[in-house]
Amino acid sequence: MTEAQDTIEINCEIRARSELAIMIYDGHKTVWVPRSEIIAMGVEVATAGHPRATLTIPGWLAREKAINTSQADTDTADLFGGQA
Length: 84
Prior knowledge:
The chain is mainly β. It is about 5% helix and about 40% strand. The protein has one domain (about 5-70). The N and C termini lie far apart (about 30 Å).
């Protein structure tokens, strides 16, 4: 896989926005992601709390910022006897 094809899709909350970047919360920490590096973004309108988003960003950026890329729902996994 070439670096150009190395992309990561993450589910996150949008905490803040600026002209140049979006602050996201990945379930573990809050980081700024430059808008210029966001390949695709889908946003769900939140009825309460922060809006949720699915971002596609370069893999190198996710690794550099140590963004949690796990898709497991750590808040509810143990409700059904599973592990996150």
